[in-house]
Design brief:
By secondary structure, the chain is α+β, with helices and mostly antiparallel strands. The chain has one domain. The longest helix is centred in the first third of the chain and has 17 residues. The two termini are 20 Å apart.
Length: 163
């Protein structure tokens, strides 16, 4: 399951996409049990590695890019870790644990400024792709064709907002 936060700004609605089930390295709570959450993380990672192909981890034999299948294997786990290290080196305070935990606030509890990985992934994507594409993920052809569970949840969130 995913959640989309909608923020009304002058002249437009800003979105923030969040996973509701942890994705990545196994941890204490139901990690990797939701395809849509996994696909959201994989989609953002795919875009990150398109910009930074030198950092992309190897996928399973026969794969040619970053997978968007909702199954969390070594490519996704290693990809999350590499994104976290890259973001930290660029000045974004993140915990580097190869997990995309569920965000419970703006910053990680018990810290003054540590951001959630899912928010950093959102920020990377919006800077790379622009607000229009970011705000219309529910229409993204790549998501529609390769990540049907995520596509349905994005559409559901948009319909809920409009009703």
């Amino acid at each position: 399951m995913i959640r989309v936060h909608f923020f009304e700004l002058p002249g437009r609605t800003q979105r923030m996409y969040e996973n509701l089930v942890p994705t990545g390295a196994p941890g204490p709570s139901n990690t990797n049990r939701d395809r849509a959450s996994n696909q959201l993380v994989q989609f953002f990672l795919r875009k990150f590695f398109a910009k930074h192909p030198e950092l992309m981890p190897k996928g399973p034999p026969g794969s040619t890019g970053f997978l968007l299948d909702g199954k969390v294997g070594s490519q996704t786990i290693e990809g999350i870790g590499r994104f976290q290290v890259h973001a930290r080196n660029a000045g974004t305070p993140l915990i580097t644990d190869s997990r995309v935990s569920v965000a419970t606030d703006v910053v990680v509890p018990g810290t003054k400024a540590t951001r959630w990985t899912i928010h950093a992934l959102n920020s990377f994507y919006i800077l790379r792709s622009g607000e229009t594409d970011f705000d219309r993920l529910f229409e993204n052809k790549e998501i529609q064709s390769e990540a049907p569970e995520l596509a349905l949840e994005l559409l559901r969130e948009e319909q809920l907002r409009r009703s």
